[in-house]
Amino acid sequence: MSKFTAKMKVNSHEVEMNEFVNSFVTNVVLGAVNSLKGVSDISTVIVNIENREVYINVNDKEVPLTPFPEQFILNTLIGLVSSLKGVTDVKSVEIRLNKA
Question: How many domains is the chain built from?
C-alpha cells in the first residue's frame, strides 16, 4: 500500500496525531473509500462531516454516497474521533489524505 500523509480537524481545530493514530485513521479512511463504487488510483482524499452528513472527495471529484455507506462511514469516523484525547462533542470532522 502506498504511503499517505493525514491531517484532521475536529470542530475546526487541528488534531495532533501520533504515528499510531495517523496510521489508524489513514487505514480506516482508505478502507472505506476503496470500498465505494467508482473509486480507484487514490492520490488525495477529503472527508468532511457536517451536520451528520458525509462528503467524500477523491482526486478532486466528489463521490456520491447512498444512505447505507454514508451512515456506516459517519458512525465509524465519529466513533473513532470521539475516542481521541481532548475531543468532545463532535460537530464536524475534516480528514485529508495525500499520497506521499
Answer: 1
